[in-house]
Input
Amino acid sequence: MSVPGGHSLGSGSRGLRWRSLLFVPAHLLKFVDKAHERGADGIVLDLEDSVPLSSKREARQSLRDSITKAGRDGASVLVRVNQGMRAVCADLDAATVPGLAAIVLPKVETAEWIIEIDREIETLERERGLVPGGIRLVAQIETPAALPRLAAIAAAHPRLIALGLGPEDFSAAVGGQPTPDLLLGPNLSVLFAARAAGLVPLGFVGSIGDFADLMEFRKTVRRSRALGFAGAFAIHPAQVSVLNEEYAPRSDELDWARRVIEAEREAEARNRGAFTVDGKMIDAPIIRRARALLAWSE
Output
């Protein structure tokens, strides 16, 4: 029997539990109105790729109400902004309102961009009487230029709480297809950088657009959780329940974790640092995994 939960569960040192973050086009108010019913841990109101240029102003104008609506059932509400200083400033001006949990930054390539965005948000927070630093940042890595700078990006600022690979944009940037062969390497690089900096590692090793075959999607997510990812973005409501289920501990994992902790108590009473559970050796790192599983479930 293999050791369940062979990775650090949870979402980084800041304790987030974002299993599923569902993108919703911010200009399509009929989708925004129903977003809170989808069961996602977070709703990402998108001002970027899913909104045509002609509708971006309209999306910004309705954003305050959309943030309130999307958070009605307790989900975190995030906003994905555009690129370019002029566009991102307009987006941040519209998005920096009560109820916003985080800004999602696409195509991040440098730590300096994170710092620049932080300065703009902090100015808006202070002007509007919001808690400085209360709005967090999520960085999407979508170009190969970002890969050698991942450590610096992940450590750029305390406002940054999560890091994820954008599989479609990244694949297009390198002239390839979003297949596991292409995406495994960059996904692992993002995962390692996020974990090293105490951030939430978001993603799965596959195309975010593959939602028609939910059984295969489930396999992809399950493999990605085994690698160490803690949650992921979704572009279709059908993906949400799969992400919620696969990025949470299973009942057999929790049973194993409880047995480990109980066996640890018995081993401590006998002054032993290592012991066995289900025929497998258990020592300090595996105990940490067990504790992480139980902490997540609580």
Notes: DSSP finds twelve helices and ten strands in the chain. Strands lie at 20-25, 42-46, 76-80, 102-105, 136-141, 160-165, 200-202, 232-234, 275-277, 280-282. The CA atoms of residues 39 and 241 lie 7 Å apart. The chain has two domains: 20-248, 252-297.
